[in-house]
């Protein structure tokens, strides 16, 4: 047997050893969560409802500061996603609505516009910016961990569905991370180059203290 044949055989054996041994692992939401997901619910307790979520058909409430709403179908809402490496969400953006610049540390994202027009973009680690107005039927991908945003570019409401490469992709919104907590204003001013009045105004707006 040649070296190449040996390597191919070894690769096949290794793949087989990691093959799935069960059809699914519905999340036991009452149990602990680890980086690899939730523990599996006993199969005898699994029902069809563990694989169904109807919330994406309901418009989100956009009467808020950002004039936008995100309805998630993550593992917490759809336990059947556990271990499958996928999830979904619905974006509703009223006129002037915005999903502020944010990141998903646990997964990449794909967006498809269902209604209206959305200006969407992301910033690479080299600080290059990629953005464009997307219309109905257009899609855009946002690589894992990179800062990105969505802004309603239409006169009426815009709607999009997004998918993620994780059942729990995580979320950190930059504005709230800087101004929506108790990080002392002096530190925020030092790391953002904003003056004291601007920082205190943003903290008051976003619920921060300090």
From TrEMBL:
Keywords: Apoplast, Disulfide bond, Glycoprotein, Manganese, Metal-binding, Secreted, Signal. This is Germin-like protein. Oxalate binds at residues 104, 109. GO terms for cellular component: apoplast; extracellular matrix. One of its GO terms (molecular function) is manganese ion binding. It comes from the Eukaryota. The gene is LOC115727321. Mn(2+) binds at residues 102, 104, 109, 148. It is found in: Secreted, Extracellular space, Apoplast. Disulfide bonds join 25-40. It comes from Rhodamnia argentea.
